[in-house]
Description:
This protein has about 210 residues and is mainly beta.
Amino acid sequence: MLGAILGSLLGCSQKLSDLSDTVQIAALGYKDAPITKAQIAALPYAAIQFKWGDGPRVLSTLAFAEADELKWVTQDEAMIVTQHGRLVRTAGFNYDVTYTSNLAQDPLPQLLSLWQQGEPEALRWSTEHDWQPGYYSGYQALSRFEYQGTEQVTILEEPVSLVKFTERVTYPKLKVAQENTFWLSPNTGKVIKSQQFIGPGLPAVEITLLKPYQ
Length: 214
């Protein structure tokens, strides 16, 4: 089903496997190599580790910080852009999300406190996405967050207890749904790890915060 959606949404001229190939090229030299706390502490920049689909994990450093947007680059200058832990744009891959709307109303930055206050309607969100190639624009996505308890996550070889939420995302026009997952700090509510889809039929992106931006 998703393959058919991908074909109708992103065209038939490129294969889904091309995206994974692009990520693997970007990750040369980083193929799931162990990363230590000492190595991350020695970095002069903020850092994340991300993994696209079945590709290798990639160490990425912060290139630019513009207002709430953080722009992370890889070795071959591919880029992902996050805002409060949400992946909002990509550049340099075979398929890119180029626009995410209504970010000011995204519950994610206050998700933990909103849930603690017992405001279920505040855990819903509506946005629109644009993708390239093909100039596909204005595809509405409706999301709903759900609390999943706490979970032990290993980061830099150490277990960390994080608060887990899932975000069910529905594309009404395409009649498909998919699920993002976010792991938050129980103290600050900030996103520490996530698994996010940038569009129907595209691989999930796993992002782990290794060194936050100060």
